[in-house]
Design brief:
With about 120 residues, the chain is an alpha+beta fold. About 35% of the residues lie in helices and about 10% in strands. The chain has a two-stranded antiparallel ribbon with strand order 1-2. The chain is elongated, with a radius of gyration of 18 Å. The two termini are about 30 Å apart.
Length: about 120
């Protein structure tokens, strides 16, 4: 999404958006890279419209009922990485793919008071 920057967190009016398919079993780092590439395309397709003022601003509030909105703070990732031992194997796999990123603390379970870390090899 290309949107107007304002004082809020990701709250400015939407100018343009590009939707793309996310393949099943995509890892978060792959999704990040795919989003980066799709964002470059979106920007390239619309730079001249932006410069010429040829766009319609859509308040994000106008889309809340249709799409729902949410955002997360960076410090919330710590609790998002916790994998409960009683979860199904598929839920654990989805959670690991969504939260494992090289260079950051990996997802984990707490077993007997200690963290058991998961990696790509855990799947």
């Amino acid at each position: 999404t290309l949107h107007v920057l304002d004082n809020g967190i990701d709250s400015g009016d939407i100018l343009f958006e590009r939707r793309f398919e996310i393949k099943e079993k995509t890892w978060v780092e792959d999704l990040f890279q795919q989003t980066l590439e799709e964002s470059k395309v979106l920007f390239a397709e619309n730079i001249w419209k932006i410069l010429k003022g040829n766009y319609k601003r859509i308040p994000q509030s106008a889309l809340q009922n249709e799409r729902g909105t949410s955002y997360h703070f960076r410090n919330e990732i710590n609790t998002a990485k916790i994998i409960e031992e009683d979860w199904s194997l598929e839920k654990k796999k989805r959670h690991i793919r969504a939260t494992f990123k090289e260079g950051f603390e990996p997802p984990y379970s707490i077993i007997n008071g200690e963290k058991k870390y998961y990696s790509k090899d855990s799947l």
